[in-house]
Every structure is written in structure tokens, then in C-alpha cells.
């Protein structure tokens, strides 16, 4: 069989088998031949013969014993075959594999192998996928290629590997490799989707106390939120089966709730800042890149407060508190806490609080509170410690508070107040002296200017500068006067604040302040304004005329300042005397109290001796006060006669020293006797001083009363003489020789007027009741008389007569005004003597202006009906005209007090009153005059009703406040200016934008308020 090189057919093979295996014979050949025929009989025959052959065991036909000798010849091929299997198994197995897998494509066998390094051929859509290939074998080609869709692409060789990257794959890929003409099998790259976020929303649910509207943010992961905010995430995903969230570095992950197809939600409240990650997952992978975001939690900060404080160290009436409060989310309350510590009390007082109003809808705001101390039970020498505290509206952690530092405010002791008042009095006196000198210098400059301008038609440079300097010096003088009256008022207010002032001294103090207030009159101001205008126009004649009027006004001012200085000295002396009496009375009480303690057996001798020593020091202080009183007395133009108390003073000092020594030796009985003696001597001193005070007042009142009666009498006589002279001038011609004689008479009347003026000015320096306009009226009288004398010299009779008429009117006015002063002085004298109805029932009610006007109207009507004539009529008319003038002046003062021009009560009434004055001076009482007076009275009643209502409104507004001035300190004016700007700016903001712009405005004004003052 082996020799048969040609391939045998099936029949030939069957014959050969039949020949070798007799048991088979031709059965196998028959089966092969029968297969060519059809039919059931043929098939049955084939089946039978096949069964016979199948049951035959061919291996039994072989005689292995005879073939054993050939085994040795098989060893060599077997060794070769095993070696081939070990060295190159594919040499043997590949052929059989191709035979078995006949339906599979087999490429030609290469001398190297293609090894794909990728563990999985699964790529993600829209992502790059890199193929890594290694070639291994005996011979490695230099290049390798990837075959994609019949396209052959060279692969990149790098570090022993071949790579190729599919960019942004979208679909599945089939590929193979080719190298050196050999091809690999085909590979398949599967494309799947990674899980991803399509979009997401974040819902912010803010704490309710913030008053902030909840928000929804789209595709915003980094959050800045207030503490306590609830955050809800809603993720819309792609190809996600699961979503988790993790916070900070914790390994814990929280499952997001799958609320819909590919929609996940999670909610959490935040109180700390955090970093969080969102994680998505499906069967193939997680999300490719980490999704990390940060949550910044803004802690509710403590509120901020700053405080500027202004302590009223002049009057000790109030403490002004102002500053700025702010918080990140809102303010709820601002309180002032204070503790009062009494002088000499070592234990701390109870802490009290006061609510300060704030705006709760403003996170940044200024505040101002004027804390009036009169509502507190606080005495001299006590101190107050205080601070402010502000609360925010923290609804998460509870309200938080911040407070300012603690401030202190100490009220001065009685002796400190006295020292302050004395120092200010000394300064005021010095300032009045200085102001008098300034007024004298100004007057000298005015005189110099008048002399330079005489006979000139034009101003030169020097004269113009001189006039400018006059105006400048007047402005400086006005400032000094303003400061002077303010200083005096503050000092008197301080004195009244801490001590009960003697009623008489208190009244004098008010009158002195009124005099100071009237030093700056409106007429003088107008003259200086007119001088400014004329200086620009350079009208020399008008300038000379105005300077002449200013000169007269400045002359009056100088006299008023000298009078003010003397009255101030007088009042200072009265106050010092009253203080000395009160101080002595206080020491008498203390000595008596110490005497009672001394008589007690249980009292300690050392403590008693110390108290006695303290009383000795206080008496020494009293002696210094008395010495100062004597110095003040000597400064007066008319010094008083002070009582001699040297003997009593020496005895008090001796007895107090004896008492102290006896107490140190524990001789209480002897000490008590010395204390009693000291008290008695002090009582004697007090009685002497009180008697002197009372006698001085009465003596002065009587002297002043007598002087005033003489002045009024001389004024009336002067008025009548002026009237008689005026009548004579009307009937004489300029050429008449009597004209010169009458001129001499006018000169004599001018001299008489000077005597009246000197007497009046001397009296005014002692009598506080004489008002400033009295001395000004004297100046008017002198001006008219001087003008009359000049007109007579120039033979200008009409002008002379007119000026005499005006002079007579001024005399009548003065007489009437001084008559009122006389009545006031008489009432004051009755009060001092403790006599009359005014002492028992109080001071009679002062009649109102309408009552005075009604009384005047009645007098005018009665005078019209009386039929009087001549001197009697002139005298009555002059008095009535002066009385109407006084009512008019008081009406004008009231109008200045109660309203501006156009809204003054009784507007137009002063003009109608002037018309009546003119009628009375001209002796023309007609029916028109009577009707006008009725109209004046009616309108005056209406004006008084209007003023009464206004006063009641003002009283209601200030019913809980003191009548002292509550001025806003300059330090806090800026706070209110900024506050007003805030309010005005916010008014312009539309309602919808209000919350945002309110925040911006707050920040703007906060920055503005923090800028240093330039």
C-alpha cells in the first residue's frame, strides 16, 4: 500500500482490503458499488452488509508480534516529531487546526506574531481610543500598519510598541494589522456611552430670618450661601444608572434619589463650607472627570458698632452718642447700658438700660442719641459709666451681640462747679474790657475817616482802605459780642443748673443777658451794609452821612458796654455775697451735726477729729471767698459797706482748733463746748452778712428810686421847655433878632439834656431793669437836638422846628419808659420789704398787648371828647404817642420771635400804629384815627390767639424736655448730613430694586463715613 504512489479509488481500496482480510472479502466492494443504485431492496442490502463490516474489529487482524521488530525503526521519527512539537508546535498543530476549522479564513503564517496589548476593545463615544500592538517573533519588521475599511495606516512606533489612536470615536470599528506582507486577524472595537450630566439646577432655600427670596441656579455648582441654607440639587443625566455625592475628604457617599428617568435629586442644609463631588455610574464606567465644586458658607458675623461720644462739660446736661452699626444680615436692637456711682460710695450702683431706636430694615446705619441726664437721679460729684450694645438677627445660632468699650462721665463736685463759674466770670469780665477797647478803637477810626472825608469829592486809596478796615473791625467786634453773650449765658445756665439762685440775683442775671443780646441791633447792621454798598459806588456825601450815623451808634454801643461791665461786676458781687452766706450756712449745719456726733458715747474720737479738721479747711475756704468778695466790692464804682467779721473769724478758727485738740485727747465734753461756740460765732457772721445784704438792697433801691424820679421829672420839664421853644420858633422869622436868642435857648436845653443823659447813664449802670433801648432813645434825643442847633446856625427854621419836634417825642418816650421802670422798681422794693399784695398773692399779672392797646384806645377817645387844649393837650398827646410807640416796639419784638416775613402774627400792624403816632404828635385825632385804633385792636386780638396756639403746640412738643438749649454738637452734624443723604437717595429708587440698591447705598455711605476729614 505504501508503494502505491498513485491515489487509489474507493473500489480499488475495497479490493485491497478484501484481499488482506478474508473475512471482509468483497463485502466492502459490494457496498461501494451498490451506493450507485437506488431502491429500497438495494438500501436494505447495503445496510445488511454494513452491519457485518461494523461488527468486525480490524485491530485483531493485525499481528503485532510480527511487527515488534520494526518498532526500533519508529523511534527516530518519534524523537523528531516530539522535538518539532516542543520547538515549534504550530508546525504540527496549525495544519490540523486548518483542517478542523475548514470554514474559517486563515492567513498565511508569518514568522512573527501580532500581540494586541489592549485588554478590552471597548471605547467611549466622543473620546479617543489608542490601540497598542506588539510584534513578537524571530524576525520583527520595522513598520506595522493598521487596516481600517481597506485603508492601510502606518502605526507610530514608540518604546517597542506600535500605537494608533482613534479620535473622538462615534461608531464601532473593525480593524486588522499588517506587517511585512503578513496580516493579523480582524478585531472589533465596541463603542459605548459614559454617564454624564446633561444639565442641573440648584435650589437655595434661605433661612427665613434673612428675609431673602429663595433662588434657583442653573448649571452653577460653586455656591456662596448664608449659614443654614438648604441646598437641593436636581441632576438631569445621560446614560446614568446611579448618582452619588460626597463631601470634603470623607469616604462616605450619599445616594441621590432617582425621581425620574435619568433625573436624580439630593437635599442638605449647610452650616460649614465644603467641597463636594458628583459621581455618576453605569455598567461600563463612572464619569470620566471628577465633578468637583465648592460651597462657601458665609457665617452670620457678629454685628459691628463704633461710638463717638460728646460729653457736655459746660452744662453737664447731656451726653451725645453717635456712630455706625452694621451687620451682614440685619439688626434687631440697640441699647444703652449705664451705672451711676454716687460720690463717696464704694459699692457699684445698679445697671440700667435705655432702648435706642434703630431701623430694622437697614443693615448699615448711623445712629444718634442725645442722652439727657436730668432724667437720672444723679448728684454733684457722681459718675456714670456707660456702653452701647447692639444685637443682630441670627436665626440659626441665636441673636449675637457686640458692645462698645465702657465710657465714664463724672459730674463736678460743688467746689469744682464754683471754681468753673468763677473762672468763666473772670474771663467774661476780661473779655468785656477787651471788647470796650475794640469799640473805642473802632470809634477812633470812624472819627478819623470823618475828618479825612470833610470837603472831599472823591475817595483815594488810603481812605478806601480805611473804610474797609472799619467794616472788617466791626465784623470782628460783632463776633466778640456774640461770643461774649454766649459765654455769659452758658455760665449763668451752669450756675442755675447746680444751685438754687437767689430770686433777685436770678432776675438780674436774666436782665444782664438781655442787655448783652441787645448790644447788636439791626439798625447798626443795616448802616454797615449800606456803607459797603456806598463804598462800591464811591459816593462821598452819602458815605459821610452814613459814617455820622454809625458814629452815633458806636457811641451808644461804647456806653452800653461800659454799663454792661459795671452791671456784670455788680451781679458778680451779689452772687459772691450770696454764695458766701450759703457757704457759711452749710458750715453751721455741718458743725452742728458734728457736735451731735461728739455727744454720742459710741462715736470714734479719731473719726470725729478728722471731720473737725475737714471743717477747719472748709472755713479757710470761706475766708478766701470773703477776701475775693472784698476785692470785687472795691472794683465797683460805688462800693458797698461790708460788715467787719474779723473778730468772729478768729474766734471760729480758735474754737475749731480747740475742738479738734480735745477730740484727739478724747475730751468729748470740752470738744462739744468748743464746737457750740464755733457754731455761734459763724451764726453771728451769717446774720451780719444777711443784714448787710438786705440793707444794701433796700438802700440801693431807695437811692435808685429817688434818682429815677428826678430824671423823669427833669425829662418832663425838658420836654415842656422844648415844646415852648418850638412854638416860639414857629412864630419868628429868620431875620428877627429874637432868632439868635432862641438859638441860645436851644443850646441851654442841649446842656440840660446832657445832665439828664449823664444821670440816666449813671443810674443805668446800677439798675438792671433799664432796657437798652432807653439809652438808645437818649442818643436819638441828643441827635435831634444837635441837628436842631445846627439848623438854627444855618437859619433853616423848618428843619430846626422839625428836629425839635422829634427831640420832644424822644423826651416823651423816655419819660414814659422810665415811668414803667419806676413802677417795676417800686414793686421790687415792696417785694423786698415783704409788704403789699404782691408778697401775699404773688406778682400781679402783666397785661397783654391787646389790653394795653384797648386801654390806649379808650384814652384817645376820651381825650378827643375832653376838649382839652394848649399845654395840657400837648402833654397828654405826647404821653399817648409814647405809649403807642412802646406797644409798637413790643409788637415788633414779638413778630421777630414768632415768624419770618410774610408769616408774622399781626403783619402790618406796626405800620398802622406809626400812623397813629404821627396823628398824635401832629395833634390830629380824627374819626379815621378812632376807626384805625379799633382795627388795630381787632387784629391784635387775632394775632394773640394765633401766638397762643403756637405756644401751646411748642409746649406739647417739648413737654418732656428741659428749657435749656439742646444744641446738636458739631461733632455729630456730619452724621445727620449723611443720614439725610441716605434717605433722599433711597427715595429715588424704584420699589422693585429697593433691596439691592439699599445694600449698595449702605456700603457707599459706610465707606463715605469712614473717610477721614480733610
Automatic annotation (TrEMBL):
Region of interest (Disordered), residue spans: 484-510, 593-612, 629-684, 830-849, 891-927, 945-964
Annotated transmembrane regions: 73-92
Biased composition (Low complexity): 673-683
Basic and acidic residues bias: start-end ranges: 651-665
Keyword Transmembrane helix: yes
Keywords (A to Z) from UniProt: Membrane, Transmembrane, Transmembrane helix
The name this protein goes by in its record: DUF4175 domain-containing protein
Organism: Fulvivirga sediminis
Amino acid at each position: 500500500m505504501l508503494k502505491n504512489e498513485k491515489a487509489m479509488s474507493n473500489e480499488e481500496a475495497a479490493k485491497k482490503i478484501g484481499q488482506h482480510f478474508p473475512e471482509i472479502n468483497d463485502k466492502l466492494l459490494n457496498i461501494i458499488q451498490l451506493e450507485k443504485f437506488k431502491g429500497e431492496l438495494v438500501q436494505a442490502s447495503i445496510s445488511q452488509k454494513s452491519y457485518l463490516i461494523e461488527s468486525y474489529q480490524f485491530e485483531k487482524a493485525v499481528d503485532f508480534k510480527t511487527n515488534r521488530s520494526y518498532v526500533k525503526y519508529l523511534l527516530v521519527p518519534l524523537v523528531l516529531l516530539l522535538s518539532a512539537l516542543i520547538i515549534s508546535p504550530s508546525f504540527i498543530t496549525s495544519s490540523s487546526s486548518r483542517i478542523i476549522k475548514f470554514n474559517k479564513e486563515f492567513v498565511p503564517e508569518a514568522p512573527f506574531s501580532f500581540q494586541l496589548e489592549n485588554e478590552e476593545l471597548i471605547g467611549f463615544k466622543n473620546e479617543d481610543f489608542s490601540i497598542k500592538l506588539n510584534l513578537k517573533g524571530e524576525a520583527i519588521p520595522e513598520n506595522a500598519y493598521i487596516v481600517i475599511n481597506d485603508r492601510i495606516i502606518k502605526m507610530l512606533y514608540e518604546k517597542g510598541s506600535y500605537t494608533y489612536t482613534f479620535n473622538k470615536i462615534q461608531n464601532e470599528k473593525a480593524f486588522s494589522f499588517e506587517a511585512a506582507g503578513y496580516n493579523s486577524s480582524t478585531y472589533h472595537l465596541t463603542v459605548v456611552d459614559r454617564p454624564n450630566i446633561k444639565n442641573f439646577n440648584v435650589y437655595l432655600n434661605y433661612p427665613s430670618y434673612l428675609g431673602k427670596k429663595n433662588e434657583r441656579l442653573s448649571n452653577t455648582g460653586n455656591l456662596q450661601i448664608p449659614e443654614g441654607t438648604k441646598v437641593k440639587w436636581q441632576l438631569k443625566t445621560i446614560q446614568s444608572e446611579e448618582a452619588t455625592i460626597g463631601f470634603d475628604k470623607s469616604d462616605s457617599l450619599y445616594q441621590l434619589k432617582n425621581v425620574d428617568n435619568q433625573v436624580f435629586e439630593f437635599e442638605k442644609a449647610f452650616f460649614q463650607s465644603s467641597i463636594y463631588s458628583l459621581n455618576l455610574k453605569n455598567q461600563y464606567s463612572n464619569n470620566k472627570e471628577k465633578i468637583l465644586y465648592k460651597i462657601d458658607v458665609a457665617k452670620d458675623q457678629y454685628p459691628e458698632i463704633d461710638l463717638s461720644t460728646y460729653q457736655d462739660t459746660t452744662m453737664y446736661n447731656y451726653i451725645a452718642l453717635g456712630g455706625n452699626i452694621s451687620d451682614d444680615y440685619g439688626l434687631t436692637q440697640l441699647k444703652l447700658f449705664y451705672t451711676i456711682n454716687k460720690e463717696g460710695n464704694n459699692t457699684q450702683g445698679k445697671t440700667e438700660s435705655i432702648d435706642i431706636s434703630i431701623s430694622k430694615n437697614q443693615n448699615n446705619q448711623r445712629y444718634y442719641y442725645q442722652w439727657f441726664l436730668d432724667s437720672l437721679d444723679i448728684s454733684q460729684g457722681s459718675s456714670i459709666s456707660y456702653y452701647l450694645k447692639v444685637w443682630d438677627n441670627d436665626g440659626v445660632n441665636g441673636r449675637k451681640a457686640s458692645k462698645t468699650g465702657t465710657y465714664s462721665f463724672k459730674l463736678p463736685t460743688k467746689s469744682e462747679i464754683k471754681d468753673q463759674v468763677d473762672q468763666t466770670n473772670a474771663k467774661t469780665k476780661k473779655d468785656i474790657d477787651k471788647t470796650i477797647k475794640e469799640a473805642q478803637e473802632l470809634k477812633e477810626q470812624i472819627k478819623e475817616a470823618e475828618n479825612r472825608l470833610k470837603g472831599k469829592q472823591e475817595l483815594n486809596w488810603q481812605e478806601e482802605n480805611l473804610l474797609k478796615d472799619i467794616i472788617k473791625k466791626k465784623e470782628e467786634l460783632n463776633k466778640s459780642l456774640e461770643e461774649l453773650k454766649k459765654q455769659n449765658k452758658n455760665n449763668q445756665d451752669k450756675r442755675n443748673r447746680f444751685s438754687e439762685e437767689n430770686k433777685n440775683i436770678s432776675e438780674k442775671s436774666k436782665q444782664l443777658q438781655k442787655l448783652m443780646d441787645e448790644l447788636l441791633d439791626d439798625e447798626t447792621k443795616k448802616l454797615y451794609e449800606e456803607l459797603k454798598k456806598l463804598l462800591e459806588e464811591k459816593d462821598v456825601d452819602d458815605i459821610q452821612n452814613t459814617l455820622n450815623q454809625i458814629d452815633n451808634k458806636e457811641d451808644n454801643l461804647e456806653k452800653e458796654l461800659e454799663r454792661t461791665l459795671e452791671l456784670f461786676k455788680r451781679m458778680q458781687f451779689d452772687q459772691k455775697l450770696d454764695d458766701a452766706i450759703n457757704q457759711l450756712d452749710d458750715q453751721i449745719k455741718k458743725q452742728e451735726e458734728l457736735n451731735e456726733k461728739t455727744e454720742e458715747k459710741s462715736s470714734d474720737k479719731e473719726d470725729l477729729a478728722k471731720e473737725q479738721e475737714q471743717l477747719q479747711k472748709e472755713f479757710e475756704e470761706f475766708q478766701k471767698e470773703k477776701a475775693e468778695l472784698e476785692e470785687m466790692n472795691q472794683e465797683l464804682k460805688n462800693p458797698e459797706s461790708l460788715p467787719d467779721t474779723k473778730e468772729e473769724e478768729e474766734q471760729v478758727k480758735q474754737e475749731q482748733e480747740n475742738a479738734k485738740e480735745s477730740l484727739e485727747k478724747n475730751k468729748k465734753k470740752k470738744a462739744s463746748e468748743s464746737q457750740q461756740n464755733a457754731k455761734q460765732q459763724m451764726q453771728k457772721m451769717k446774720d451780719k452778712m444777711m443784714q448787710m445784704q438786705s440793707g444794701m438792697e433796700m438802700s440801693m433801691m431807695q437811692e435808685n428810686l429817688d434818682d429815677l424820679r428826678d430824671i423823669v421829672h427833669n425829662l418832663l420839664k425838658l420836654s415842656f421847655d422844648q415844646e415852648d421853644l418850638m412854638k416860639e420858633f414857629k412864630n419868628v422869622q429868620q431875620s428877627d433878632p429874637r432868632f439868635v436868642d432862641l438859638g441860645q435857648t436851644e443850646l441851654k436845653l442841649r446842656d440840660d439834656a446832657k445832665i439828664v443823659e449823664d444821670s440816666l447813664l449813671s443810674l443805668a449802670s446800677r439798675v438792671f431793669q433799664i432796657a437798652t433801648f432807653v439809652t438808645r432813645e437818649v442818643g436819638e434825643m441828643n441827635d435831634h437836638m444837635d441837628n436842631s442847633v445846627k439848623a438854627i446856625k444855618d437859619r433853616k427854621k423848618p428843619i430846626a422846628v422839625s428836629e425839635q419836634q422829634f427831640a420832644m417825642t424822644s423826651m416823651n418816650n423816655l419819660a414814659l419808659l422810665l415811668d414803667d421802670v419806676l413802677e417795676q422798681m417800686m414793686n421790687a422794693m415792696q417785694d423786698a420789704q415783704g409788704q403789699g399784695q404782691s408778697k401775699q398773692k404773688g406778682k400781679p399779672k402783666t397785661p397783654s398787648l391787646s389790653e394795653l392797646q384797648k386801654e390806649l384806645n379808650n384814652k384817645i377817645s376820651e381825650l378827643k371828647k375832653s376838649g382839652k387844649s394848649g399845654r395840657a393837650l400837648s402833654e397828654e398827646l405826647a404821653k399817648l404817642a409814647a405809649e403807642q410807640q412802646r406797644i409798637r416796639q413790643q409788637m415788633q419784638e414779638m413778630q421777630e420771635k414768632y415768624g419770618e416775613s410774610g408769616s408774622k402774627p399781626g403783619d402790618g400792624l406796626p405800620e398802622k400804629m406809626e400812623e397813629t403816632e404821627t396823628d398824635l404828635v401832629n395833634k390830629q385825632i380824627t374819626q379815621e384815627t378812632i376807626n384805625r385804633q379799633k382795627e388795630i385792636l381787632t387784629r391784635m386780638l387775632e394775632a394773640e390767639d394765633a401766638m397762643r396756639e403756637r405756644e401751646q403746640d411748642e409746649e406739647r412738643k417739648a413737654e418732656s424736655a428741659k428749657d435749656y438749649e439742646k444744641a446738636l454738637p458739631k461733632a455729630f452734624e456730619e452724621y445727620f448730613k449723611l443720614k439725610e443723604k441716605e434717605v433722599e437717595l433711597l427715595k429715588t429708587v424704584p420699589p422693585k430694586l429697593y433691596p439691592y440698591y439699599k445694600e449698595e447705598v449702605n456700603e457707599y455711605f459706610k465707606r463715605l463715613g469712614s473717610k477721614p476729614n480733610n
